[in-house]
Amino acid sequence: MNRLTHTNQVCAMSMVIADRLSLNPNMCLAIAAGHDLGHVPYGHDGEDVLTELGGRKFRHEVNSVVLAQHVEPMNLTYETLEGMLTHSRGDGPFTADKEKPQEYAAVMYADKIDYLCSDLSDGMNYGRLSKSKLPDAVSRLGSSAEERKKSLINALIRESLEKDRVDFTESREAQYMNEIKKFLYPNFYEKKDFRVQRFHLETVHDYFSRSRYFSGLDPTFLTSLLTDDEVKRIVEIRERAKIPRVSQIRNFGIFDFIDSLKGKEIDYTDPDLDWEPVPVRQESS
């Protein structure tokens, strides 16, 4: 599963949840579309490397809001930005903040359901997870990723309707999802051999640090703006030349806004949401 496919899936699931629970569909769609904007090359493992290289904690959910406000300003509502910021749970419990708009929880749960089911299937398809060692929760939810997603979404909607708020913590299916999460972290997420990708990120970070063209720009932030393929391309070029020429990477996406970044101080650790939000009118159901 790639990032675009995941985002599209979360958008679709969020809209289903919004429709069944009479939530604001536009808010759900906007949050879902932007929730992973700030992801770096090689995902969460890449974040850990950039944290080490930059000396400050790199969090993709914070970077998503930074990008939407200060790199390519999108004029998003406060609620959309806050929903993007609060969607991440890491390996912590999948609990909803009762004090926040329910749309935040709808997208958060859609995100967790999609990536857990998709990662589980990817692990099996690529031979990194043995079907014989999977927890019983997997088969109880369905025989395919799509069946498991549908089971979880339907259960989430039932539990939320019973509680009159978006919540997915007590049903049998919610417990199954937690079992799958607890299984995937030690058996899949934490068992990756990341040495090659780490070398790639260190190489690119070093390039941005040394290049005169990018002087004055944070090499950690610049590295975070690349795609996996762009990182690999810089590494390939550096294997033949010590310092790649800017002309060799001019087609990279960062050049769409690199000039606007020069002379601009951007703190990728600060979501900058201390401004006063404008109330959003809720659509009638």
Can you describe this structure?
The protein is mostly helical and 285 residues long. It has two domains: 3-35 and 87-191, Hypothetical protein af1432; 195-261, no CATH class. It is 58% helix and 0% strand. It has 13 helices and no strands. Helix 1 (3-21) runs antiparallel to helix 2, helix 6 (102-125) runs antiparallel to helix 8 and helix 8 (145-163) crosses helix 9. The longest helix is centred in the middle third of the chain and has 24 residues, at 102-125. The protein is globular, with a radius of gyration of 20 Å. The mean pLDDT is 93.
Looking at the overall shape, the CATH architecture of the largest domain is Orthogonal Bundle
Poorly predicted runs of 5 or more residues: none
Q: Could you tell me the mean pLDDT?
A: 93
Helical amount:
55-70%
How widely separated are the two ends?
Answer: 34 Å
The first-level CATH class name of the largest domain: Mainly Alpha
Q: What count of helical segments does DSSP give? A: 13
